[in-house]
Amino acid sequence: MNTISGHHHISMITKNAKQNNYFYRDVLGLRRVKMTVNQDDPSMYHLFYGDKTGSPGTELSFFEIPLVGLTYRGTNAITQIGLLVPTEASLTYWKSRFEEYGIQHSDITTYANRPALHFEDSEGLRMVLLVSNGEKVAHWGTWEKSTIPIEHQIQGMGSVEMTVRRLDKLARTLTEVFGYTELSRTKDEAIFQSIQGEVFGEIVVKSLDGPTEKPGRGSIHHLAIRVKDEEELAYWDEQVKARGFHSSGIVDRFYFKSLYFRESNGILFEIATDGPGFTIDGNIETLGEKLDLPPFLEGRRAEIEENLQPIEEK
Predict the structure, then answer these.
(1) pLDDT tens digit sequence for 294-305
(2) Overall domain count for the chain
(3) 3-class secondary structure for the chain?
(4) Looking at residue 193, which CATH number applies to its domain?
């Protein structure tokens, strides 16, 4: 049986890779597991942060676009990322850390029926820490060199929020095409899970009329959802097309294979395979420490490196 086993990664836009690296690696304590480039435009960095190996379900990815403008928030967009932490004591730890570093944050509250702490990075990307209650990506690996104590480390992605004009349209795509379970529904919000009872595949959909969000720095470009292998990916390619959506077809991203489609509200989804993963061209000890390029770009390394600004000080 072909199933969506949760979130794979989520991709955002940043204006400044150096500041982005500082926030996600040094402040949030995630591991930078891959420093590469946008394969469709190798003039820009593509950075991945996650657990020890960048396991599917733990990856936050950023495209650096130095000339990007502001995000004008609105509807028909992915509007918030949930990140899992182990306990309610972790929320207290993180609230103090955010205060120490001057990070914009809320009081401890609840979100999607869980204890929560909302916060934003310096570019206005909205995130929320959620208590996992023991749920985390099964293969999440502790990053021993993290700036965060093990008992409070981020354990991967939880609820991802989408805000759309036509909630029913997105609901039908999630349930009828991909087999998500609808957990709850009110007039303006619904919660779905790819595997019932598992928060690491949860999508919170909010209904909002008004202008469409104009993306910029701190906006979310797309959500990638997980499949096991290329055989499953080919199955979902057929399902997407049968529903009348345009599919990109299967694309080889070297670290995984994937396809892209937009649902009826314009939300961009990627469907991505679990493997081969970020260790295909690196070892676990030194992941993310140098610029890695897929084989088809390796011959352009000198040109690509010349056009990129170093992230770390020499």
Answers:
(1) 999 999 999 999
(2) 1
(3) CCCCCCEEEEEEEECCHHHHHHHHHHHCCCEEEEEEEECCEEEEEEEEEECCCCCCCCEEEEEECCCCCCCECCECEEEEEEEEECCHHHHHHHHHHHHHHCCCECCCEEECCEEEEEEECCCCCEEEEEECCCCCCCCCCCCCCCCCCHHHCCCCEEEEEEEECCHHHHHHHHHHHCCCEEEEECCCEEEEECCCCCHHHEEEEEECCCCECECCCCCEEEEEEEECCHHHHHHHHHHHHHCCCCCCCCEECCCEEEEEEECCCCCEEEEEEEEECHHHHCCHHHCCCCECCCHHHHCCHHHHHHHCCCCCCC
(4) 3.10.180.10
